[in-house]
Amino acid sequence: MALPKHRTSKSKRNMRRSHDHLTLPQIAVCPQCGEPRLPHHACPHCGVYKGRLVIPKSEE
């Protein structure tokens, strides 16, 4: 079983972890209603994707 010969310094440990951070989701603006939405997703407010109505609004 492999064991380290020397202790890993704080600098080396933190450099290895430099890419482990979370990224914020990119936000696009819906051209139909102007509400924020995720790119390549149908708008949850108006239901339009690429100029077509893909999620019909239910009338209650």
Features:
single chain, 60 residues, alpha+beta, two-stranded antiparallel ribbon, 12% helix, rod-shaped
Describe this structure in words.
The protein is α+β, with helices and mostly antiparallel strands. The chain is 12% helix and 13% strand. The protein is built from one helix and four strands; from the N terminus they run αββββ. It has one helix spanning 10-16, and strands at 28-29, 36-37, 48-49, 52-53. Strands 1-2 form a two-stranded antiparallel sheet. Strands 3-4 form a two-stranded antiparallel ribbon. A hairpin with a 6-residue loop joins strand 1 (28-29) and strand 2 (36-37). The mean pLDDT is 91.
Short recap of the structure:
The chain has 60 residues and is an alpha+beta fold.
Question: Layout of helices and strands, plus pairs?
Answer:
Elements: H1 10-16, E1 28-29, E2 36-37, E3 48-49, E4 52-53
Antiparallel strand pairs: 1-2, 3-4
**Helix-residue proportion:** 10-25%
Kindly report the spatial arrangement of strands forming the biggest sheet. Answer: 1-2
Oligomer: single chain
**Which class do the helix and strand fractions yield?**
alpha+beta
Q: Could you state the order of secondary-structure elements as H and E?
A: HEEEE
Low-pLDDT runs? none
Shape: rod-shaped
Give the strand content.
5-15%
User: C-alpha Rg, in Å?
Assistant: 23 Å
* Biggest pleated-sheet summary: 2 strands, antiparallel
The separation of the N and C termini measures 65 Å
Number of strands: 4
Question: What is the helix tally?
Answer: 1
* Average pLDDT, all residues: 91
